[in-house]
Automatic annotation (TrEMBL):
Database matches in PANTHER family: GTP PYROPHOSPHOKINASE, GUANOSINE-3',5'-BIS DIPHOSPHATE 3'-PYROPHOSPHOHYDROLASE
Signal peptide (UniProt feature, chain positions): none
Cited InterPro entries: Beta-grasp_dom_sf, HD/PDEase_dom, NT_sf, RelA/Spo_fam, RelA_SpoT, TGS, TGS-like, TGS_RelA/SpoT
BP-aspect Gene Ontology terms: guanosine tetraphosphate metabolic process
Domain TGS, residue spans: 373-434
Protein name: TGS domain-containing protein
Organism: Candidatus Zambryskibacteria bacterium CG10_big_fil_rev_8_21_14_0_10_34_34
Family: Belongs to the relA/spoT family.
Pfam families for the chain: HD_4, RelA_SpoT, TGS
GO CC terms in record: plasma membrane
Length: 461
């Protein structure tokens, strides 16, 4: 049987007998409840539920999440009552299923309705992150079958995926989902751009892969000769949508993009990451400004790795990412990799602070302040502050505290006195100079990017 629940159970680690029975029960319940229902493609509706549950299992989520994947549409599309779900599967699964059902689709049918739909998603997620995981995996299969949806709806669904789901998945560090979703959405949002970059990739892909494979073998030999043997390597292929954004950034000169294919090196321990980096740099010269230490300074979503771009000696540049196996798992699965959301007796309902904060904003503000491209700057004490690209020192001050912003009199960037309206760059160290007599100026609104800063400036001028 194609949709065999045992295939899903077989992929799970450390699953108890009771958890396996819960998954089997949800599988059978959903199959019966949706019997006779069809999708736009003509296939049984249950296929969608099975694929959603399988996507959840591939993220190594718990039995409650997988069972909720099977059941996520029973309240919306069948006669099943909430009381029945609670009686058969418990309050935890009912909360997740209701959370996913109440969200519905975040459709662009008027700002108020759209705002409310997104707010429901964020509120349910702030109580239990698994609501969002189930919704993501539901959306993933919907995107995989988007060609069967009426054409007039395809672009709207794809754009919604690209503008809302992908950035949230990225902020949570679930790159396995965000990469797949953005590549599935891209051709429906910009068919011409998709065709253009796909054609360019085909022309040079085999040649690039062959060159990278030769280089990978050389690196492996150098590491082994230096006594570092407990490692393995593979490739990271840049997603087509991510590549297209870079392609536009470099004014459509694909030769300027050095990380279409990158080498990934997985080692046993953190100290081996730095050891491997030293061995590589002793043989291949690094490109200035391209060495990034995300181990000492992780990204806001938890991503850790060493990045370097080196000259290979034959005219090419290759990006190398070095990390431990644990860091690699975190890089792919993000918050879904955390035992906090598994069935190990820990609290599964910890509120994600930035998700809770988003509840106070409209969709446009959320996209601008939370889901836009980000920069990471530091306080003098080394704390990481996460801001949207284009943010100024004024935004930084208000992100620390409203009193700091309101009393801002000057700023030092990397130790140098700078204008308070200076646009910040990634990894700068920012020190705000305050005075008791200082007050915000309404002109500051022209230099701020975040809604938080704008709100405090308006309230105090």
């Amino acid at each position: 049987m194609e949709n065999d629940v045992e295939k899903i159970i077989a992929t799970l680690k450390k699953t108890t007998k009771e958890e396996k029975e819960l998954i089997r029960k949800a599988y059978q319940f959903a199959k019966m409840a949706h019997q006779g229902q069809k999708r736009n493609s003509g296939e049984p509706y249950f296929n969608h539920l099975f694929e959603t549950a399988k996507n959840i299992a591939e993220l190594d989520m718990d039995a409650v999440s997988i069972s909720s994947g099977f059941l996520h549409d029973v309240l919306e599309d069948t006669d099943t009552k909430p009381e029945t779900i609670e009686k058969e599967f418990g309050k935890e699964i009912l909360f997740i299923v209701e959370g996913v059902s109440k969200i519905g689709n975040l459709r662009y049918h008027g700002a108020d309705r759209y705002n409310e739909a997104l707010r429901k998603l964020l509120f349910a997620t702030s109580k239990d992150l698994r609501v969002l995981i189930v919704k993501f995996c539901d959306r993933l299969h919907n995107m995989e079958t988007l060609s069967f949806v009426p054409k007039e709806k395809q672009e709207r669904i794809a754009r919604e995926t690209l503008e809302i789901y992908v950035p949230i998945a990225y902020r949570l560090g679930i790159r396995k989902l965000s990469r797949r979703l953005e590549d599935l959405a891209f051709p429906f949002v910009d068919k011409e751009g998709f065709d253009e970059i796909s054609s360019l990739l085909k022309e040079s892909h085999d040649e690039r892969l062959e060159s990278l494979e030769k280089f990978r073998k050389k690196v492996s030999k150098e590491l082994a000769d230096s006594g570092l043997t407990n490692f393995h390597s593979d490739y990271r292929v840049k997603t087509i949508y991510s590549l297209y954004k870079k392609y536009l950034k470099y004014k459509k000169d694909i030769e300027k993009i050095n990380d279409i294919l990158a080498m990934r090196l997985m080692v046993a321990k953190t100290e081996d990451c730095y050891r491997a980096l030293g061995i590589i740099h002793s043989v291949w010269k690094p490109q200035p400004g391209k060495i990034k230490d995300y181990i000492a300074f992780p990204k806001q979503n938890g991503y850790q790795s060493l990045h370097t771009t080196v000259f290979t000696g034959n005219g090419d540049l290759v990006e190398i990412q070095i990390r431990t196996e644990e860091m690699h798992k975190e890089a792919e699965y993000g918050i879904a990799a955390h035992s906090l959301y598994k069935s190990d007796g820990k609290n599964k309902k910890e509120i994600m602070p930035w998700i809770q904060t988003m509840l106070n904003y409209s969709v446009n503000e959320i996209k601008k302040n939370f889901l836009s491209q980000r920069i990471f700057v530091f306080t003098p004490k080394g704390d990481v502050i996460d801001l949207p690209v284009g943010a100024s020192a004024i935004d930084f001050a208000y992100s620390i505290h409203s009193d700091i912003g309101n009393k801002m009199a000057g700023v030092k960037i990397d130790g140098k006195l700078s204008a308070i309206n200076s646009i910040l760059k990634d990894r700068e160290i920012i020190e705000v100079i305050t005075k008791k007599s200082a007050k915000p100026n309404r002109k500051w609104l022209e230099y701020t990017k975040t809604s938080l800063a704008k709100k405090h400036i308006k309230n105090n001028t």
